[in-house]
């Protein structure tokens, strides 16, 4: 009976987590949106943000990118984002306004990763060296 209650409690918590509404977010360039959130939930490494009324999954690094100053928009008009003098500070002060937010570089370069993993246990197999795994299926093999 206790095990049953624990399972019910865990499932209830998971369901509450999955149905939490995505917070409204800033306008994000479409190349950083991987697709719609399912039940307002996204895969690991991605945040759910409500864009134009719908939950979208966005790379965490881009979704969490915010300016540290309220003056960034004004500074940008005067050249802050392009002036070499401010090169060392703009990435931490005004990354959003200066368009310095970038997505994670962890990606699979091959479209065959799922097949290789399924058919030959590619990520865990000693038949393939680490360089091959990194070069082809870095994300699927959890190497980044």
UniProtKB/TrEMBL annotation:
<dbReference type="Pfam" id="PF01549">
    <property type="entry name" value="ShK"/>
</dbReference>
<feature type="domain" description="ShKT">
    <location>
        <begin position="65"/>
        <end position="101"/>
    </location>
</feature>
<feature type="domain" description="ShKT">
    <location>
        <begin position="106"/>
        <end position="144"/>
    </location>
</feature>
<protein>
    <recommendedName>
        <fullName>ShKT domain-containing protein</fullName>
    </recommendedName>
</protein>
<keyword id="KW-0732">Signal</keyword>
<feature type="signal peptide">
    <location>
        <begin position="1"/>
        <end position="20"/>
    </location>
</feature>
<dbReference type="InterPro" id="IPR003582">
    <property type="entry name" value="ShKT_dom"/>
</dbReference>
């Amino acid at each position: 009976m206790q095990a049953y209650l624990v399972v019910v409690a865990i499932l209830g918590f998971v369901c509450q987590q999955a149905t939490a509404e995505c917070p409204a977010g800033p306008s994000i360039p479409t190349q950083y949106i991987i697709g719609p959130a399912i039940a307002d939930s996204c895969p690991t490494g991605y945040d759910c943000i409500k864009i134009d009324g719908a939950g979208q999954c966005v790379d965490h690094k881009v979704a969490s990118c915010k300016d540290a100053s309220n003056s960034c928009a004004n500074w940008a008009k005067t050249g802050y984002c392009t002036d070499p003098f401010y090169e060392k500070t703009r990435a931490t002060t005004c990354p959003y306004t200066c368009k310095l937010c970038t997505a994670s570089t962890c990606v699979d370069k091959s479209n065959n990763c799922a097949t290789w993993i399924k058919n030959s246990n590619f990520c865990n197999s000693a038949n393939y060296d680490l360089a091959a795994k990194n070069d082809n299926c870095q994300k699927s093999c959890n190497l980044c």
